[in-house]
Each structure stands twice: as C-alpha cells, then as structure tokens.
Amino acid sequence: METLSYFLPQVWFGILALFLFLYVMLDGFDLGVGILSLTASTEERRGILMTSLSNIWDANETWLVLMGGGLFGAFPLAYGTILNALYIPILLMVFGLIFRAVAFEFREQAKRKLFWNFAFGAGSFLAALGQGFALGGVLKGIQVDQAGHFIGTTWDWLSWQTVLVALTLIQGYVLIGSTYLIWKTTGELQDTHYKTAKIAAVTTLIGAILITIGTPIFYEYARERLFHRPLVYLFAVIPLLGVLLISLLIRSLFRKEEKAPFIWTILLFLLTFVGLAMVVFPYIIPTQITIYEAAADPSALVFMIIFIGALIPVMLFYNIYQYIVFRGKITGGHYGE
Amino acid sequence: MEFLSNTVALSRMQFALTAIFHMLWPVLTTGMAIYLAIVEGIWLKTRNPDYYYHARFWSKLYILNFGIGVATGIPMEFQFGTNWAPLSEAIGNFFGSIIGFEASWAFMLEAAFLGIMVFGWERVHPIIHFISTILVAVGANLSTFWILAANSWLQTPAGGEMVNGKFIVHDYFQGIFNPFMVVSVSHMFLGTLETSLFVIGGISAWYIYNNRHSAFFAKAFKIALAAAIAVAPLQIYVGHLSGEQVYHYQPSKLAAMEAQWHTTPAGQPADWSLIALPNEQAEQNDWEITIPNALGYILEFKPKLSEPVLGLKEWQPADRPHLVALIYYSFRIMIAIGFFLAGLMLVSTIQWLRGKLSPENISQQRLLMLGWIFAAPLGYIAVESGWIVRCVGRQPWTVYGLIRTADAASNLPASNVLTTLTGFATVYSLLFVAVLYFGSRIIRRGPRLDLPIPGLKDQPAVETTPGEFIPDERPVEAQQ
C-alpha cells in the first residue's frame, strides 16, 4: 500500500505530462499558425493557413480537455488551487480559444472576413499568452495555506519572469507553427515560413537561454534541485542537447529541408518538457504541494488508469490515422467543400 | 445590486450563463450526428444521390454548431477549478474522473473522426467514411452519457461517503449507476434527438413551405417525422419517470416544481397547480388555478397518494430551493413543449397516412409546415427549461444533501468574476447573433446538388452493415 501511494501519483504525473506535451506540441502548431496568420499578406494565404488546421484543430485541442479532466480526477487539490490562483491567465486562454474556434466556421461563411481573420489570429495569440502566463505562474510558485488552498492575490502570477516565459512560449509556438507550414505548404508560402522559422528559432533560443540561466538564480527550489548530485550531470546535458538540436534545426532550415525542421522542433519541445518536468517533480505546485499530497485516493487513480490509461493507445492510434488520411501538401484553400 | 459584490452569486451566474449557452450546441450536434449516420447509410444502401446531398448539406450546420460547442465547452470544464476550487477538491475523486472519461471516451472520438467526416469525402473509401460518421455519432452520444452520469451523481450522490470534507469512493460503478443515472441519460438522449428531429424537420418544412427543393426536403422531413413517432411519446414517458424519481429522491425540488407550500399527507387526494403566482416571502401562492386530484394521477396514476408530497414549508428557508416561480414555470414550459411536439407529430402522421405528404402533395400542407417551422426552436427551450428545473431546483446544494453551493465556491475577488461574467455575456451575445446570421445564410443558400459523388469501387451487395443503423419504424416511402 505504501509503495502504491508513491507509485500511482507518479504514474499519473507521467500520464498528465504526456497529455500536456501532446497538447503543447499539437495545439502549439495550431496556435503558432494562428499567430502567423496575423502576418499573412493575402486572403488566399490566410485561407491556406486555416485549411491546414481545419480538420485537426479540434482533436488537438481535445488533449487540453483531457489534461484538464485528468488533473481534476488525479490531483483534485492541485486542480482547484492552480486554476483558482491563475484565474486571469486561464480565462485569457479560454476566451482566446473561443475566438480561435469560432473563427474557423464563421470566416468560411462570412463575406467580409476581416473581423474573423482577426479573431483567429488574436484568439490564437491570447490563448498562447494565457498559457504562457499559466506556465510561468506555476513555475514561479503559488502561495498556499497549510491545507494547500490558494491564499495569494489576483495578480501574483505576473512578474517579469512570467512575462519572459509567456513570450518564449509564444515564440516556441510560432516556431513549431512555421515548421509545420514548411511541411504542409509549397512555393512562396513555404519560403515565407522558412524565414519566420529562422527568426523564431533565434528568439526562442534567446528566451530559452534567459530562462535556463534565470531559473536557478531566481527560484531557490530549482537551484537546490539543479545543483544536487547526481542530477546536476543530467541537468548539464539538457542545455547541451538543446544547443545541438537548435543547430540541427537551423541547419535544416538553411538546407531547405521540408520535414526535418518540424521534427527537430518537436524534439526541442520534448527536451524542454523533460527538463521542466524534472525541475518540478515531485511537486505539482512547486515548493508547496507534492504530487503525493495532491493525489486523489489510490482507488480513484487505479480506476482512472484502467478507464483512461488503457484508452491512450487507442486515442493515439486514431489520431495518427487521421494525420495519415490528410497527409500531403495543402494546395488550394479547401480540403473538401 | 447586492449580488455584484457576492462572489458565490456571481460564480453561479457565470456557471449558469456558460452552461445555458453551451447547451444550445451539443444538444443539436449529438442528435444530428445520428441523423447524419442514417442518411449516409441510406445513401450507401440505395445509391440515391439525394441522400448523399443530405449528408453534405446537414453536416454544414453540424460543423457550425460543433465549433461553438467545443469553444463553449472548455469554459465549463475549467470553471470547476477556477470558480469552484473547494468543490473540485472535495469531489475530484469521483467527479473529476468522470470528466476525464468524457474527454477520453467520447470527445476525442468525436473530434478526431469529425475531420474525416467533414473533409474526408474524397480521401477515404465511402465505407471508412461511413464508419467515421458513426464514430462521430457514438462519441457525441457517449458525451451525453458521461456528462449526465456526472450530473446525476450531483443530484443523487452514491458509491461512497464524505470523510473530512472529501468524497471517498467505495464503489465507482455504484457512483456511475447512481439512482438518477439511467433515466436522466435516457431523458437527455431523447431530448437531443427530439430537438434535432424538430430542427431538421422544421428547416425542411421551411424549404417545402417556400417551394424550394420540395421533393428533396420531403425526404429529410419524413425521416425526422418517422423518428419522432417513436421519440416524442417515449420522451413524455421517460420525463414522467424522471419526475417520479424527483418525487422520491429530491422532495424539496418537487415541492418547488409544483409550488406546493404545504404537505399533502399520504392517502389524501392532491390537486395539481396549473398556473400560480408563488410568493416566497409569504410562503404561499398569491393566486392559482388548480386541477383537483390531478397531482395524484400525475405522480402515481391514482387519485390518492401512497406517499406524502412534502411542501416547501417542511424545510427552513436556508435548506430549500429559491426562485420557486422560475422552477415552477420552467417545468410547465418543458411539459407544454413536450406535449405540443407529440401532438404535432400525431397530426403529421395522420396526414402522412392519408397520403398528404407525398412529394406532389406535401407543398399544399402549408399550415402543417408552418407548425413545424414554429416547432424548430421549441426543443431547445424545453431542454434549457429542464436543466433550469434540474439545477436551480437542486439548490441550496451542489451535491444534493452533501455539499452546499455556498461552500463550493472559490474565494475570488468579486470584481474578477464580474469582469469575466461580463466578458462571457458580451462574447456569447456576439456569437449567438453570428450563429443565427451564418446559420440562416447556410439555410438560405440551400443544398449544393452539383457536388461530385464519391465513387464506390465495390458493388452494393458488399455492404450489409449499414442497414442496421436504419430505425425499424422507418416507413417504406422514406427508403426511395
């Protein structure tokens, strides 16, 4: 029983990290494409950008719904406390996602598309901004009382570090969105996104360097973890791998490879993710609440592993199938009608 | 305006607003998904291109509604954490798991296969496409199952107990199959079907009324009517079962639904209030028209009650629902609509049997078509009224008998909630207008009857499964 109460929350930490990673990767490029659409020069281009997402954005967004449901069931205390503390970033994201979602259909139907173009781009930006502040807010830490309930104030999540995290996340989304478009488009549109990908690679790198340096300096809990042997060797490897991946990415962009940039970007996201997870673990609210304290009953965790965990391969399978069905380049502004 | 500084009241208003608005979209898409699977099945079986064009036409309305459904569903999930953190912590063990199941079992399935259903006509084999459409319908209706299971558990919590302010689950299946679950899921399932059928029938009637594609839309109209023959009466019966359950499990809600202030003891006849002016201060109805003995018949099919009907005065004001008039009238509106739709179905069926709905004659049924056009929005109103009865009537409890709404809300500054509430009200008003505008535009444009038909490589004899999805009651005429 004692082992179970350690093992089960760890399994759920892993499952939720997987959901969150899939969300950040998949809806990340959706949101990135959305932000890039603000710079699209013609209506036709914008049409192609939106078409490249129209069949997948809802399934991609569902990983967020799944992550939310999983967090709610597996770590109820964290679900309440984190969302309560991050009221404004979460609602920013929610409103952003609303605008992004409705823009797809409304733009398709509208004669004057300007408003819905803006709703799509600005909605994507707002959602990314909210997510960035939420991530920054969690890393920064949340003020809680003995029972783990939020006792801070409305704007606790806002600081220059969280602004940096938010901006870097937006850059990351623009990067993965650009490399996705390189993969899915041709011609001038593809050329444009080789350029945006290069710019985004550099700005993401700058943000990542600042965060990597800043985290151990400003957050004591991170310092303790990072410089504690034997983990220090592992943490030393991550920035090195990061530099390697970024160089591979930039090289592939200069060589005008079509699929490689997307794949290097995904690996870069994965690396960042592993790094963050290792800094945070075993906390779910850094320095305050561990996953063991926030976890639901072992019976709930087992029940959810059976009913959600078992379905993960199935969900992955049909999501991949749907990418296979819609493989290939987008040519016109339409997939079907 | 005291409530403007009351976080609990504002959070409740925000949840009510977002829930009422969210409900409008899935209520259509879950029912319509089944309809889309049926028309696609008929197309594969008969190869009549009209059914292919039906599938294409209605799926445009489907995806318009689906997009807003997704967009407005996300605030529902996240509000449990942002505005109801103590509740999330207390019931996460059970309720959070169920929300997770909804995402993994239902919503992901619908969202992933929707792409193929809407955009994949040219990319996959028609059979794969048909399977995708069916999976969209399965996913959508599994959502109904899980969400209603979760909500039923709030109404009649089961499968565990409260320990130190947290609900500890002893038996998950008992929690899922809580007393309300089966009837509530059925009631909502039929509600989504009935709403969709009358929307599809109503829009078809509009075309027929205006002599546009009359023969084409007569097909959709008849499918909707054929299904309504089964659904409309069944819904009244299941609604009755649901009322009986409230009578047994949530007497304070029943008292508010019927505006009964005084207890009627067992063995007595009970009058049914038809119209009343409930007065909460005076704890009485200022004015009412009653039908003698009718409540006994309604609840138990007999003149005298075998169990007492408790009156609102049995509870302290803090322990019983308020907004009695809202609950009382919402309930009556729902019932009136249920009977009106069943009546409309009955009249239409008689006309059908008399041969008045044949493609040549159907345009002359102008009054009947007007009736269906009028009926198109009624399903929505009935569903929303039902949810108001269900959730306002559950007060002051969030989890009936276990957790009070006042103890469930996050401790947020009221100004934060007021800001987001205003934001939701503004954005949702805009979306509502936009949907009506774009939806009516899709309808005014009408179906595209010039789309290329995706080729079938196999011969018709191959498909044996599609026939299974055609309901038995479908008359021979609809198969043409």
Topology:
The complex is a heterodimer of chains A (337) and B (480).
Chain A: H1 2-37, H2 43-54, H3 57-74, H4 76-85, H5 87-109, H6 114-140, H7 160-184, H8 187-218, H9 220-226, H10 231-254, H11 260-280, E1 283-285, E2 289-290, H12 291-294, H13 298-307, H14 312-325
Antiparallel strand pairs in A: 1-2
Helix pairs in contact in A: 1-2, 1-3, 1-6, 1-7, 1-11, 1-13, 3-4, 5-6, 6-7, 7-8, 7-11, 8-9, 8-10, 10-11
Chain B: H1 7-23, H2 26-46, H3 49-82, H4 85-119, H5 126-155, E1 160-163, E2 166-169, H6 172-176, H7 181-209, H8 214-249, H9 251-257, E3 272-279, E4 284-291, H10 294-300, H11 324-353, H12 366-375, H13 378-392, E5 397-399, E6 403-404, H14 405-408, H15 414-445
Antiparallel strand pairs in B: 1-2, 3-4, 5-6
Helix pairs in contact in B: 1-3, 1-15, 2-3, 2-5, 2-7, 3-4, 3-15, 4-5, 5-7, 7-8, 7-12, 7-13, 8-11, 11-12, 11-13
Largest sheet of chain A: 2 strands, antiparallel
By DSSP (H or I, 4+ residues per run), the number of helices of chain A equals: 14
Q: What is the radius of gyration of chain A? A: 20 Å
Distance between the termini of chain B: 61 Å
> Strands across the major sheet of chain B, in which order?
1-2
CATH superfamily of chain A: Formate dehydrogenase/DMSO reductase domain
Order of helices and strands of chain A: HHHHHHHHHHHEEHHH
Strand content range of chain A: under 5%
Overall helicity of chain B? 55-70%
Provide the residue-averaged pLDDT of chain A.
Answer: 87
Largest sheet of chain B: 2 strands, antiparallel
Assign the structural class of chain B, choosing from mainly alpha, mainly beta, alpha/beta, alpha+beta, or little secondary structure: mainly alpha
Q: What's the multimeric state?
A: heterodimer
Spans of at least 5 consecutive residues with low confidence of chain A: none
Subcellular location (chain A): Cell membrane
Family (chain A): Belongs to the cytochrome ubiquinol oxidase subunit 2 family.
Membrane topology (chain A): Multi-pass membrane protein
GO biological process, one term (chain A): aerobic electron transport chain
